[in-house]
Amino acid sequence: MQQAAMTMAEETADDWWEVEALYDLCFAPGRSALSSYRLRDGVPPIAPLCITARDEHGILAGAVRNWPVCVDGKLAVLLGPIAVHPTRQGEGVAAMLMRQCLAVAAEHGWERVMLVGDGPYYGRFGFEKLNGVEMPPPTNPDRVLGLALCEGAWDGVAGLVTQATDCK
């Protein structure tokens, strides 16, 4: 896999439609009907964790967005969606976005990150299955993964994932 030269930057208002078009291209129609979107409804994303990757010509190669959620009264980052343009897949763009996102989350004091995804893929970034953490149905519990950005951040944290507004 050849590592692409990319510029990472916080998503701006001017990027919004272009990122939406990338998500439409990369994900199935009806993506906004997924349970993770119910957790995002009416909640602003975490701006520093919404990152674009552009090539040397300024063309959008990939993007990631993140939202806060509440689990057991504790805030967590719900990572995703993350997408890479089909013509740029296999170049390490997703890995660059993931590493940048996790580094920025740690810099901003976030303690825990979760996502719904493929364990073997996300395991290389340190994500593990979260036992006892339940996404709204119909999410497969084996695909609910988490990463502690500080020691013990997920210890004893269990229950239903709800909107960040539920954390007091």
Write the layout of secondary structure elements.
Layout (H helix, E strand, L loop, with lengths): L6 E4 L5 H11 L8 H6 L10 E4 L5 E12 L2 E11 L8 H15 L4 E5 L2 H4 L5 E2 L3 E2 L9 E5 L10 E5 L5
Parallel strand pairs: 4-5, 7-9
Antiparallel strand pairs: 1-2, 2-3, 3-4, 3-9, 5-8, 6-8
Describe the protein's architecture and organization.
The protein is built from four helices and nine strands, in the order βααβββαβαββββ. β2 (51-54) and β3 form a beta hairpin. The longest helix has 15 residues, at 93-107. It is globular, with a radius of gyration of 15 Å. The protein has helices at residues 16-26, 35-40, 93-107, 119-122, and strands at 7-10, 51-54, 60-71, 74-84, 112-116, 128-129, 133-134, 144-148, 159-163. Strands 1, 2, 3, 4, 5, 6, 7, 8 and 9 form a nine-stranded mixed sheet that branches. The termini are far apart. The chain has a single domain, classed as Aminopeptidase. The chain is of the alpha+beta class and 168 residues long.
CATH superfamily: Gcn5-related N-acetyltransferase (GNAT)
Return residue spans where pLDDT drops below 50 for at least 5 consecutive residues. none
Morphology call:
globular
Helix-and-strand structural type: alpha+beta
Strand segment count: 9
Average pLDDT? 92
User: What is the subunit organization of this protein?
Assistant: single chain
Strand count, sense and barrel status of the largest sheet are: 9 strands, mixed
Order of helices and strands: EHHEEEHEHEEEE
Query: Number of domains in the coordinates?
Result: 1
How large a portion of the residues is in β-strands, by DSSP E?
Answer: 25-35%
For the record, the CATH architecture stands as 3-Layer(aba) Sandwich
Radius of gyration: 15 Å
Instruction: Please estimate the helix content.
Output: 10-25%
SS element count, helices: 4
